Backbone:
């Protein structure tokens, strides 16, 4: 998977039938540290959402069956019902994103617990739909990318 | 730029985000304390696209959803501190997101698109604000946010304390 992202590689710590855990180190230099914020670098909270989302996508590749000719395990994020930030993440912090499937009936619902060694930093609930290969997925992306030019 | 619009100069004198992490280009309209419309142009030279090689598919160029949310949230912060700017974290306070709830994701944006963020103030009490709104690209809805809670906090309250790591997470 090579979609555009503001966050570097995630390390897969664990993956199983009900979820997965990934980790990354909050950058200690570079544009994120320089720009958010000068003199007091804090990892933007949305990067925790990004980490949770990418963890779900990684998990989906091996755990969500293909539907109607789509590539196996492709899911699209449709909603974030809840995202609570508990405390800031600082440069060099090791961040763990632990995602668990909580419902398989009405689409795919995940809860993500994101933590550093100082404790829990975010609780996030994300909803996905399984891509069916008939429009909404990468094909739509292609059309929109061309339409946007 | 119209006379009643505000560019990057006013934006940088209002919020502390800088460089590649400043994700608002212009404020189109602002009614302080009530609502604000701002835009951000998505460009193929942004850092999030740097890792994509020649083999990247067109869909890989979808602008990251997390950055759409960040760009909207910066517009929300602009509205919340428009009349009491906070451009330097070390001289003032730091804006921290408390929660983002009831968010719906729609169409994706691509390089060349202009994100139009609409922000409404739902409630402001002391140094905490609750805001709601949407992001559009043309007539397509990209994002809808039911409740974004942002608070201004003293930097000194937030600095990490070495050696105070919790035993359990």
Residues:
């Amino acid at each position: 998977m090579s979609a555009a992202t503001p966050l570097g590689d995630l390390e897969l710590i664990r993956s199983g039938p009900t979820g997965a855990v990934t980790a990354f180190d909050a950058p200690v230099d570079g544009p994120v540290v320089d720009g958010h914020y000068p003199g007091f670098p804090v990892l933007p909270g949305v990067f925790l959402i990004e980490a949770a989302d990418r963890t779900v996508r990684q998990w989906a590749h091996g755990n969500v069956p293909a539907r109607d000719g789509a590539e196996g395990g492709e899911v699209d994020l449709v909603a974030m019902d809840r995202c609570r930030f508990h405390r800031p993440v600082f440069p060099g912090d090791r961040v763990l994103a632990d995602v668990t499937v909580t419902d398989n009936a009405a689409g795919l619902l995940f809860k993500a617990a994101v933590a550093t060694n100082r404790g829990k930093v975010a609780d996030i609930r994300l909803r996905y739909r399984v891509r069916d290969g008939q429009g909404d997925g990468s094909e739509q992306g292609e059309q929109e990318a061309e339409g946007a030019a | 730029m119209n006379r009643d619009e505000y560019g990057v100069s006013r934006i940088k004198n209002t919020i502390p985000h800088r460089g590649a992490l400043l994700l608002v280009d212009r404020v189109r309209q602002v009614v302080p304390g009530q609502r604000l419309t701002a835009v951000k142009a998505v460009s193929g030279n942004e850092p999030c696209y740097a890792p994509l090689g020649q083999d990247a598919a067109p869909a890989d160029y979808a602008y990251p959803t997390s950055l759409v949310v960040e760009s909207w949230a910066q517009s929300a912060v602009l509205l919340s501190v428009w009349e009491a700017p906070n451009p330097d974290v070390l001289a003032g306070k730091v804006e921290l997101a408390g929660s983002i709830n009831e968010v719906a994701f729609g169409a994706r944006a691509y390089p060349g698109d202009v994100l139009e963020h609409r922000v409404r103030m739902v409630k402001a009490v002391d140094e905490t604000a609750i805001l709601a709104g949407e992001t559009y690209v043309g007539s397509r809805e990209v994002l809808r946010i039911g409740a974004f809670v942002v608070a201004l906090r003293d930097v000194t309250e937030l600095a990490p304390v070495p050696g105070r790591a919790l035993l359990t997470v």
